[in-house]
UniProtKB/TrEMBL annotation:
Keywords: Signal. Coiled coil: none annotated. Residues 1-22 form the signal peptide. This is Chitooligosaccharide deacetylase. It comes from the Bacteria. It comes from Ciceribacter thiooxidans. PROSITE patterns: NODB, PROKAR_LIPOPROTEIN.
């Protein structure tokens, strides 16, 4: 049975990242899990499904090797990949489905662009992005999500506060495995294969035409060969917050 506890410093880590603002005033929270130790290192693999298709190079590796992962999906991706969603849902022992938003817009509550993507732009639009993504997940037949990761994984500090108030935990990371699926295969493989005990990896599973996906799959395999245990983000949480469940149920 795969059990793990989030690091005791999780709250402090998130707070530190929330207060350490970049020049544009945005934050990029870091997240780690409790280490398993030299004899049983562990990492959390998180994969973003922003829009578009599904990368079977990565999914095939996960299914073949029975590797657990937390997959963050948008409403757009869910609607375009219903059969893939069913496959993921057929293995609830492996895959945890979490919220990546409705339309893949950054969770920033003021007008600006993040990496060229226009942000939500207001508190109401941020809430709609979070809640819309959650409703799509529930409507597709998955449990109420507990975690949220916004597009670009960058946030305005005030949006972080509001997202947590409505019942979701912000999913940061400690290893950027593919730089938004922009890396060549070898670089993505090297980054992921170098993940250390306690790391949370972010990579993308929606770009089958890009080189990065091949490297992501190879990097995951390399960690498996090293004896790393893969864990999901939900395994230390018994249930979602009441507020999150209430919001996700609206409109069903």
């Amino acid at each position: 049975m795969r059990l793990f506890f989030l690091s005791a410093t999780l709250a402090a880590s998130l707070l530190a990242c929330t207060t350490a603002e970049a020049r544009d005033g945005l934050v990029e929270p870091k997240l780690t899990i409790a280490r398993g130790g030299p004899q049983s290192p562990r990492v959390a693999l998180t994969l973003d499904a922003c829009s578009g298709a599904a990368d079977e190079r990565i999914l095939g590796e996960l299914f073949r090797e029975e590797i657990p992962a937390t997959i963050f999906v948008t409403t757009r991706w869910v609607r375009r990949n219903p059969q893939v969603m069913k496959r993921l849902q057929s293995r609830p022992d492996l895959f945890e489905i979490e919220d990546h938003g409705e339309n893949h817009v950054p969770a920033v509550d003021r007008p600006l662009a993040v990496y060229g993507i226009p942000a939500a732009g207001s508190p109401a639009a941020v809430a709609a992005e979070v809640e819309g993504g959650a409703r799509a997940i529930v409507a597709a037949g998955s449990p109420v999500p507990r975690w949220f990761r916004g597009a670009t994984a960058r946030y305005s500090p005030s949006a972080v506060v509001e997202i947590e108030k409505i019942g979701y935990r912000i999913a940061g990371y400690s290893v950027n495995g593919d730089q938004g699926a922009s890396l060549i295969a070898g670089m993505a493989e090297k980054r992921i294969a170098a993940a250390k005990d306690g790391d949370v990896i972010i990579a993308h599973v929606n770009q089958p035409s890009r080189s990065a996906g091949e490297g992501v799959a190879r990097g995951i395999h390399a960690l498996k060969e090293k004896g790393v245990t893969f864990v999901r983000l939900d395994e230390s949480f018994v249930a979602p917050t009441a507020r999150a469940a209430e919001l996700a149920a609206v409109g069903q």
